[in-house]
UniProtKB/TrEMBL annotation:
<dbReference type="InterPro" id="IPR047050">
    <property type="entry name" value="NGN"/>
</dbReference>
<dbReference type="InterPro" id="IPR005824">
    <property type="entry name" value="KOW"/>
</dbReference>
<keyword id="KW-0805">Transcription regulation</keyword>
<dbReference type="GO" id="GO:0031564">
    <property type="term" value="P:transcription antitermination"/>
</dbReference>
<protein>
    <recommendedName>
        <fullName>Transcription termination/antitermination protein NusG</fullName>
    </recommendedName>
</protein>
<dbReference type="Pfam" id="PF00467">
    <property type="entry name" value="KOW"/>
</dbReference>
<keyword id="KW-0806">Transcription termination</keyword>
<feature type="domain" description="NusG-like N-terminal">
    <location>
        <begin position="6"/>
        <end position="117"/>
    </location>
</feature>
<dbReference type="GO" id="GO:0006354">
    <property type="term" value="P:DNA-templated transcription elongation"/>
</dbReference>
<dbReference type="GO" id="GO:0006353">
    <property type="term" value="P:DNA-templated transcription termination"/>
</dbReference>
<comment type="function">
    <text>Participates in transcription elongation, termination and antitermination.</text>
</comment>
<dbReference type="GO" id="GO:0032784">
    <property type="term" value="P:regulation of DNA-templated transcription elongation"/>
</dbReference>
<feature type="domain" description="KOW">
    <location>
        <begin position="129"/>
        <end position="156"/>
    </location>
</feature>
<dbReference type="InterPro" id="IPR008991">
    <property type="entry name" value="Translation_prot_SH3-like_sf"/>
</dbReference>
<dbReference type="GO" id="GO:0005829">
    <property type="term" value="C:cytosol"/>
</dbReference>
<dbReference type="Pfam" id="PF02357">
    <property type="entry name" value="NusG"/>
</dbReference>
<dbReference type="InterPro" id="IPR006645">
    <property type="entry name" value="NGN-like_dom"/>
</dbReference>
Length: 183
């Protein structure tokens, strides 16, 4: 019977903030019980977020989908029961309807999720680590070649406010990270 059932990705709804605990419990069950024959991967897509705290750069991991745990498994009756009754799991993400079965993710959704997870692994997002007070050189646009000091960093929009001296006066410029380079 397991031959005719295919392995697919499903989404478990978990109590928000308890995703890591659910993953820990399921990983333990995969290693130590027969659940490992049917459940292959448990994934919580995260992204690395850089923030500045007390003048130091701090990289933290943040859940991409709060309250959701992705599970690659062959969904049979017993596996469905075990996953649904795991501590801190609310239920499967399923279609509309009272007794709707859990829906597998489409291949495009899985690839997007995996691609996002792969992209976020590298925290060295070049150009996103400028600090206030750094001296940079403008490399693009009408002010190319001018040097200035960073006054403000907007990491979400990937923009910088740079004070450049033009004709002896300091002038603020709003530039994209790609338009400057370190001196």
């Amino acid at each position: 019977m397991a031959e005719e059932l295919k392995k697919a990705w499903y989404v478990l709804r978990a109590i928000s903030g308890k995703e890591a605990k659910v993953k820990e419990v399921l990983d333990g069950a995969i290693r130590n019980t027969g659940l490992g024959n049917y459940v292959f991967q448990v994934l919580i897509p995260t992204e690395k977020v850089m923030s500045v705290r007390n003048g130091k750069k701090v990289v933290k991991e943040k859940n991409l989908y709060s309250g959701y745990v992705f599970v690659e498994c062959i969904l049979t009756g017993e596996v469905l029961y075990e996953l649904r009754n795991t501590t801190n799991v609310i239920d499967f993400l399923r279609g509309r309807g009272k007794n709707a079965a859990p829906e597998a993710l489409r291949e495009s959704e899985v690839l997007r999720m995996m691609g996002t997870a792969d992209e976020m692994i590298d925290p060295t997002d070049e150009g996103n680590d400028y600090m206030v007070g750094e001296t940079v050189k403008v490399t693009f646009g009408p002010f190319s070649g001018f040097s200035g000091t960073i006054e403000e960093v907007n990491r979400e929009r990937k923009k910088l406010k740079v004070m450049v001296k033009i004709f002896g006066r300091k002038t603020p410029l709003e530039l994209e990270n790609s338009q400057v380079e370190r001196e």
